[in-house]
Amino acid sequence: QVQLVESGGGLVQAGGSLRLSCAASGFIFSISAMGWYRQAPGKQRELVATITSSRYTNYADSVKGRFTISRDNAKNTVYLQMNSLKPEDTAVYYCNTYIQKHYWGQGTQVTVSS
Predict the structure, then answer these.
(1) Is 30 helix (H, G, I), strand (E, B) or coil?
(2) For an engineered disulfide with 22, which of 16, 87, 95, 108 has Cβ 3.0 to 4.6 Å away?
(3) How confident is the model at residue 67 (pLDDT cuts 50, 70, 90)?
(4) Looking at residue 32, what is its pLDDT?
(5) What is the pLDDT of residue 107?
(6) What mean pLDDT value characterizes the chain?
(7) What gap in Å lies between CA 112 and CA 17, rounded to an integer?
(8) What's the whole-number mean pLDDT along residues 26-48?
(9) Are 11 and 108 in contact (CB under 8 A)?
(10) d(CA 110, CA 114)
(11) Do β-strands 34-39 and 91-98 pair in parallel, antiparallel, or remain unpaired?
(12) Residues 26/20, Cβ–Cβ less than 8 Å
């Protein structure tokens, strides 16, 4: 079965950096597009970044120039490098893939203090 396990969240001061990881299993990772989403308290889940199997990337305007999505097919892992973090980046971050339906990880909390 499809499994997505996020890690790397935590508490960081504004201007700091974090790298999130998502370990995937149960499907052919190398041919699958992957994404990161986030959900802040009281808000809807929103797209942060996506990466295709050919490594084409797409970002939300709010994170362009600060966040970088990447993948390591040998490790079945997708990453989200987050730099210049802002308090408004505080959210639970979820890993996602779509194979006939959406699959989500359990999420990892990112808290940015001002």
Answers:
(1) helix
(2) 95
(3) very high
(4) 97
(5) 97
(6) 97
(7) 10
(8) 97
(9) no
(10) 13
(11) antiparallel
(12) no
> Secondary structure of the chain: what % helix, strand, coil (to 5)?
5, 55, 40
DSSP 67-98: EEEEEETTTTEEEEEE-S--GGG-EEEEEEEE
pLDDT for res 62: 97
| Cβ contact 15:83 at 8 Å | no
**Residue 82, number of CB atoms within 10 A of its CB:** 26
What the block records as the tokens of 28 is: 């052919």
Q: Tell me, rounded to whole angstroms, the distance of Cα 9 from its chain centroid.
A: 10
Span 74-98, pLDDT tens digits: 999 999 999 999 999 999 999 999 9
Structure tokens at 106: 């359990």
Residue pair 11/113 in contact (Cβ under 8 Å)? The answer is: yes
